[in-house]
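Predict structure. Chain length: 159.
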Amino acid sequence: MRDQDKSFTIKVNGKMYIGDLCYAMSREDYSNYWGAHNYEDGAYDTPDGMFAMVGTAYGDGCYESNIGFEFGVDAGIIGICDGELVKRDIDDLGIIVDAEGEANISYSGGTIAITYTTPSGETKFVDIETAYDDEEDEEDYEEEDPFDQDFDSYDEDED
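Prediction complete.
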C-alpha cells in the first residue's frame, strides 16, 4: 500500500472529469504529457487544459466514494482533468461535474480527496476510499481458488 501523502491543484473552466484518466483522455495526451514524466503522480498542463492524478492504494479495482459512485480503475490512478481534455466516451467509467477555477486532488492514507468549486460558488467534495478499512474488508476482496473444490461428491454416472 502507498503511504506518501500528495496534493495537486489544477485550473478548470466549466467542466471537469473525475476518474481514471485512461478512460477519458486521448492516448496522445495521456502518453505524451503524462508519459513524458514517467507516469508519476502530479499536475500537468497541456494546450487543451490541465490534469492531475494520484495512484490508488492498491492499484486497479473498483473504489467507492462518498457520492455513491463506484470508480473503476485500470491504470492504478484516479485523476481530475479539465473537460476540454475528455476525448472519449466515458460511459459509467467516471463522472463529469460543473467546476470553475481551481480543483484539488490529494492522497492520504488510502483516501483520494477531490475538492472543486461549482460555477455558482459552492464547494464540493468527493472522497474515494482506495484502501481496505480492516482485515475483514480485505478478506472480502480475496478471490476464491477455483481449484479448491470438494470432488468427493462427484459421481461420473450423473449427467
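Summary: The helical segments are 27-34, 135-141.
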